[in-house]
């Protein structure tokens, strides 16, 4: 049970967390902070928040757990601002989708509070954003990756582990570098490919017609291109090295497809598509 | 009302057509042909087919409408085999996702029956295949593109138009080249990107772990990589030139993303992702 939870950045992730904890009866008072007052008012109206504050200082000062759910590029400034105001027992976590940059920011700002910071990343979301996009079941059976540091208090980690467990999530532990490598492949790279596809097609002369004939496959494929541009800009800046390497290797894969088409190499194409299909069917399930 | 419908290739597309026409009361007897007898038996069991035949000749001989729903690479051989056996009034159509190669095959094989061939392409499907994947509502509110030739009988076109209208589809007319250009962009290119991504990731050392942390976005993005490898091999061979051109231009778009990341160009990344998001939201709907 978390008596007082502070959420900095009340969007899809933060509001779903609050709703899930409320549903589990695992939270007392939820206080929010964000730059958009209307969004915060909406949060109170929707029952996501009990109250909100106009400053980070006021938001965090009595909190037992502080969840920082802002874009990666805003993390360090938020950490700097909340540090002087938190209780000496407060536990802090974040939800950033790249952990290396967040941990660097935490090391730079938290000082003696660093052991009470538990880096986290819920592998869940939709392409929607804002407080109205939140829903209590978002984390049900989804993985939450925690990447505690050598100096992180085990008691702090246990509190964050329990918080997400109350939301119905599966908790996993990875080290920071490993997390960033895996997520670059499974999340950041596909997002880049989808953004690039829609951007490319939208620049063609007949793009209205192209989108007109788009079928369900195209809708599914490009859904992640409706993600929040600020969040994804920050992911690129935070995890750029890993991402650039993966895009380069992916382009070599595309080169192989092009060669097979140019050579009319039916066997090679069939092998490639067959392998991809069987991997996708077996590893993801035909869902 | 089609008294006798012959379906050559009883997969997702053909069986969904039969089920939709039955539901509309717009078809009498449905006879199927395919290479897999178990699939045909299943078709009778599921009510997709009234009967099946062991040869194309027997399947088409009394049919009023013949629907050829085989992979693009098998079209010409099927056309050659059915031509001597069809009634002099029979109307033929196909469902191939690239029209140029199908029309060439029709010109080569149909002779005096060419005016009764109406090239078609339903912009509908799922990643599943086989007769069991079919369902009556597949074509509801989906676009069917017909690409009749200069010499196509208007009466033949009207029969195929009406057939698809009974399925709840929206019928559109494009010329062959235009169809192939638009579909290369909106369907063939995304399929190549998804196949290439899954194939690339499945070759990595830690691919089990990568797929383990895949979230909903990855599932959606890669769903089309579960498509039928034979069908997509044939699309590559039939529409390869258009596809190779598009992949090349898409790679230039990826190069721009890489440059922006390497330069730490936050404004450029935000602009690119913002444009993609707004295009996707407005043109596709946030579905």
Brief digest:
2 copies of one chain form a homodimer. Chain A is built from 12 helices and 9 strands. Chain A has 287 residues and is α/β, with parallel strands linked by helices.
Number of β-strand runs of chain A:
9
Oligomer category: homodimer
CATH class of the largest domain in chain A: Alpha Beta
Tally of helical segments of chain A: 12
- Please give the largest β-sheet of chain A: 6 strands, parallel
Q: Considering the protein shown, what is the CATH homologous superfamily of the largest domain in chain A?
A: NAD(P)-binding Rossmann-like Domain
Which sequence of strands runs across the widest sheet of chain A?
3-2-1-4-5-6
Order of helices and strands of chain A: EHEHEHEHEHEEEHEHHHHHH
CATH topology of the largest domain in chain A: Rossmann fold
| Gross CATH architecture of the largest domain in chain A | 3-Layer(aba) Sandwich
Overall pLDDT level of chain A: 94
**Unreliable stretches covering 5 or more consecutive residues of chain A:** none
Radius of gyration of chain A, whole Å: 21 Å
Helix content of chain A: 40-55%
**Count of structural domains of chain A:** 2
How much of the polypeptide of chain A forms β-strand, as a percent range?
Answer: 5-15%
End-to-end C-alpha gap of chain A: 35 Å
Q: What form of chain A results from the Cα inertia axes?
A: elongated
Provide the structure class of chain A. Answer: alpha/beta
């Amino acid at each position: 049970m978390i008596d007082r939870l502070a959420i900095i950045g009340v969007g899809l992730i933060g509001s779903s967390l609050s709703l899930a904890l409320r549903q589990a009866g695992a939270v007392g008072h939820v206080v929010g902070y964000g730059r958009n007052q209307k969004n915060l008012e909406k949060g109170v109206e929707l029952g996501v928040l009990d109250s909100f504050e106009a400053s980070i200082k006021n938001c965090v000062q009595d909190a037992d757990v502080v969840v920082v759910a802002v874009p990666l590029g805003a993390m360090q400034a938020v950490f700097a601002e909340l540090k002087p105001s938190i209780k000496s027992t407060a536990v802090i976590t974040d939800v950033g989708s790249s952990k290396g940059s967040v941990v660097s920011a935490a090391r730079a700002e938290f000082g003696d509070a660093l052991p009470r910071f538990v880096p986290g990343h819920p592998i869940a979301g939709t392409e929607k954003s804002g407080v109205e996009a939140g829903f209590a079941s978002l984390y049900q059976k989804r993985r939450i990756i925690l990447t505690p540091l050598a100096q992180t208090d085990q008691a702090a980690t246990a509190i964050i582990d329990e918080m997400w467990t109350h939301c119905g999530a599966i908790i996993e532990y990875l080290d920071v570098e490993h997390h960033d490598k895996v997520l670059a492949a499974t999340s950041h790279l596909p997002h880049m490919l989808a953004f690039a596809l829609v951007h490319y097609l939208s620049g063609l002369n007949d793009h209205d017609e192209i989108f007109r004939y788009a079928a369900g496959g195209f809708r599914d494929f490009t859904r992640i291109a409706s993600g929040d541009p600020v969040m994804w800009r920050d992911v690129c800046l935070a995890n750029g090295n890993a991402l650039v390497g993966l895009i380069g290797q992916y382009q070599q894969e595309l080169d192989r497809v092009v060669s097979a088409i140019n050579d009319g190499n039916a066997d090679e194409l069939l092998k490639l598509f067959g392998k991809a299909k069987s991997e996708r069917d077996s590893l993801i399930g035909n869902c």
